[in-house]
């Protein structure tokens, strides 16, 4: 977790710079409610929960529209999937309440929901077939690779603009870069950059499906595309370097050993009698096992996505809110989100599940707090439990925070 703080950096999209230079939102831009209704139209999802089984049955017929090979699909350009969406917090105060927190700024959990919906729509725009209103693809969020914030506070009474486009494409997956800007004195200034990875599956969301290839058109776009390839290789490398598969590196071993020596209780008689089990907490520190918070959500139909599973944005919002509460209670002052990374969606969450969330402070440095939120679903009837996501949030606290100290090897 320490290395996460070192690698936080911004990768502003070339397209965003060239395409968002306008000073104010142009009329006719989509807003967030239109994004969601457009997604329902593309998939043919029902707005009535009781009709969802029928709606999903009808999707089966779309199997015939799937490409047999990627080469059969027309290539697309980055600008083909480029979208701008407005969140009119300033010009339409009626929607402000939903986005407002107690500190009179915007709830970041709501922004995560909006980014998730926008990312899916951008991918549907990239894969759109001219003659078909309904898409045979089920596009779902696989991973939030990175979200970096350059503003501490998002104002609740100024319009927000989201922009984004597909930045890299594999055979069945797409990387999407999105940006959020906020209107101040007639100009849009950057708030955050986000990188999501989406995967395309067949109409029943059972098997991978091919997506249109992406053709970069300029040296800048070549760079953006290459970076997408690098990101993919990093993810593969990271997944193979798990502690469950590989031993810690020499540097990691030294860090762990130093922490261990620092917590040994040496006040006992003579050096030879120091026990491995006898541990003490260094000053201004807290044991990691004491820096936890837990939460439970019942997954109601209201929170379903267009495929009648629980909406990924809802899971992110709930995990973020628990992460924020964990950081707040640990640091004793208001935390601000700095970065979000490595949110891997391992399993879909069914409507009716019990969602168990565990927030854990896992690293601290001066005012920074790293929070890991583990999310699992529990089926109360079968009593089965499995992990759906692991989230990583970096916060900066108003005051310096105690150092978090692990007690066990795990």
Could you walk me through the main structural features you see in this protein, from its secondary elements to its overall organization?
This protein is α+β, with helices and mostly antiparallel strands. The chain has three domains: 27-218, Hotdog Thioesterase (Thiol Ester Dehydrase, Chain A), CATH 3.10.129.10; 250-280, no CATH class; 284-409, Thiol Ester Dehydrase, Chain A. The chain has nine helices and 13 strands. The strands form two sheets. The chain has an eleven-stranded mixed β-sheet with strand order 1-2-4-5-6-3-9-12-11-10-8. Strands 7-13 form a two-stranded parallel sheet. A hairpin with a 2-residue loop joins strand 10 and strand 11. Helix 3 (32-43) packs across helix 6 (108-126). 36% of the residues are buried. The model is unreliable at 2-14 and 17-26 (pLDDT under 50).
């Amino acid at each position: 977790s320490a290395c996460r703080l070192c690698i936080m950096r911004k990768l502003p999209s070339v397209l965003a710079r060239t395409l968002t230079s306008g000073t104010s939102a142009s009329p006719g831009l989509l807003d967030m409610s239109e994004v969601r209704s457009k997604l329902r139209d593309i998939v043919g999802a029902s707005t009535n929960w009781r009709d969802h089984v029928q709606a999903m049955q009808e999707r089966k017929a779309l199997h015939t529209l799937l490409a047999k090979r990627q080469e059969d699909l027309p290539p697309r350009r980055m600008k083909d999937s480029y979208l701008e969406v407005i969140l009119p917090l300033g010009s339409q105060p009626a929607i402000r309440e939903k986005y407002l927190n107690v500190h009179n700024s915007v709830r970041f959990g709501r922004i995560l929901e909006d980014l998730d919906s926008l990312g899916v729509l951008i991918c549907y725009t990239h894969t759109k077939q001219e003659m078909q209103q309904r898409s045979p693809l089920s596009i779902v969020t696989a991973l939030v690779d990175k979200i970096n914030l350059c503003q501490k506070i998002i104002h609740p009474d100024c319009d927000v603009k989201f922009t984004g486009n597909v930045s890299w494409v594999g055979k069945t997956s797409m990387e999407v870069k999105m940006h959020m800007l906020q209107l101040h004195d007639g100009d849009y200034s950057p708030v955050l950059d986000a990188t999501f990875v989406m995967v395309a599956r067949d109409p029943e969301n059972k098997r991978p499906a091919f997506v249109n290839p992406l053709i970069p058109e300029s040296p800048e776009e070549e760079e953006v595309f290459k970076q997408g390839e690098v990101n993919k290789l990093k993810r593969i490398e990271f997944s193979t370097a798990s502690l469950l598969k590989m031993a810690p590196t020499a540097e990691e071993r030294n860090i762990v050993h130093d922490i261990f020596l620092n917590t040994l209780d040496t006040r006992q008689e003579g050096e030879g009698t120091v026990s491995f089990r006898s541990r003490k907490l260094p000053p201004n520190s807290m044991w990691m096992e004491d820096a936890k918070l837990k939460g439970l959500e019942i997954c109601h139909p209201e929170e379903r996505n267009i495929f009648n599973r629980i909406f990924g944005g809802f899971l992110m919002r709930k995990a973020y809110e628990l992460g924020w509460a964990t950081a707040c209670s640990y640091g004793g002052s208001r935390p601000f989100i700095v970065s979000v990374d490595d949110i891997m969606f391992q399993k879909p969450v069914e409507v009716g599940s019990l969602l168990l969330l565990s927030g854990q402070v896992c690293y601290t440095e001066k005012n920074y707090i790293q929070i890991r939120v583990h999310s699992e679903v529990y089926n109360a009837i079968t009593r089965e439990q499995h992990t759906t996501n692991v989230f990583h949030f970096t916060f900066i606290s108003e005051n310096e925070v105690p150092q978090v100290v692990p007690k066990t090897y795990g």
